[in-house]
Amino acid sequence: MRQSVTIMDCLREATRVEHRRAELLPFAAALAAGNLPLESYVGFLGALLVIHSSLEQATASANDDVVREVWDDSIRQTPRLQRDIAFFQPQKIPKSPVAAIRAQLVAQRIRQRAEVDPLSLLGYLYVFTGATLGGAVLKNQVAHAFGLHGSNGLAYLSSHDDEGDAWKSFRRRMNAASIGETERSRIVEAANEAFASMARIIEALYPFDTTNPTALVQTLNWEAGRHGVPQDEREINAALRAGERSWSRYPYYKWRYGSRGARFTRSDSAWLVTLAGHAPAVMAKQITWLGQVLSARGMPQWLLERHLVVLHEELVAAVPDNASNYDGLLRAAEILGTARRTHVNDEVMAACASTFEQHVGDEWSRKMPEAGSLLAAAVADEKLGITLAVPSVEAWMVDKNRFPDRWIEAVHATIRMARERAR
Question: What is the DSSP string of 352-408?
Fold first, then answer.
């Protein structure tokens, strides 16, 4: 009788192309030839630390029985990576901002998977747990290239030296897990995504280049053109976290705008950070312009108002020494809020939200929370002279292919209610 293919064998075969593509990048050839810059190696470790920190936290706390069965502390790599990076810290080695941001985007993707499909994390775990299987060869190459000795700067690549059974144990747990064909396909898809993401990071690390002025914004969103973004990695990371929080708080974003909207959230959030250094009048003018543009495209200014508050919180947490520089974002949020309240105050917003939820019921209220508030905010923008504010939201929310009749009825009723109560 033919033995069934295990999940680990399936992953090895199904990811062969992406795996090989990553191995053939110039980074590996430069390392083997002893020509890889130290910046590239340390940047590689830094990117892995960002990814492993997110992956290990997400996997260890995953809301999935199979993932919990597979996870074990023996495959944790974060402490090793931290030791390596601490070893190189005194040398103040330059970073590749593009590689750092790409690593943050991978970490963000891991958190998204943990929320919507935690089982697929096993694909990422397969890729990054197995990344050091060739550690003995890589360790020798790195030690030779940079004159390293012992475990100094080599702890990550030494992970299979003193824990040789960690991979075998991981393999046994994976193969013993109850994983059906549909689940396998999701895990394989995630593993290929992980390999491709790692390849993009490696491409940014060799050749090592920090001089391209548009590289950062293109990394955040290839459709964003050439507008400014912060050069401080901490500020960009704060912008990414703010976007992630806003999308989690308002599922409307994802449902309506998808991956393209996520890219523009990243680049727009980063651009908003750069406004913090401008005079108040300039900032107010720019944010008012952005609010009007977004509202006409289906995102009432209330969403930008709330996002500015979240962005301020993330920036202050990331760069506390510059906290006062970010106060302009709160002032801009207040300008938007004050304008909105002149026509639709917070009490009307709350009443519209409550009435809408009562009409559509708990299930649909959970699917898209704050829909009533969003409609009321669109009416406020309409009163402020943005003629497309209501139609751009209403047309999408009354699509019969997307929503049930009671939802559509609630949309029309809420818009009427907001208009009747608006000043």
Answer: HHHHHHHHH-HHHHHHSTTHHHHHHHHHHHHHTT-TTHHHHHHHHHT-TTTS-HHHH
| Prediction pTM value | 0.89
| pLDDT of 161 above 80 | no
Q: Considering only CA atoms, which of 146, 22, 30, 126 is closest in space to residue 84?
A: 146
Report CA Rg, the chain. Answer: 25
pLDDT digits (tens, 9 = 90+) for 81-110: 999 999 999 999 998 999 999 999 999 999
The helix-helix angle for 371-383 and 327-341 (nearest 10°) equals 80
How many other C-beta atoms are found inside a 10 Å radius of the C-beta of residue 315?
A: 27
Backbone conformation region of residue 414, classed left if phi is above 0, alpha if psi is from -120 to 50, else beta: alpha
**Burial letters for 280-295: b for 16+ Cβ neighbours within 10 Å, e otherwise?**
eeebbebbbebbbebb
pLDDT for residue 17 is more than 80: yes
**Is 147 strand, coil or helix?**
coil
Euclidean distance between CA atoms 199 and 206, whole angstroms: 11
Per the listing, tokens 């809301």 go with: 63
- Indicate whether 352 pLDDT > 50: yes
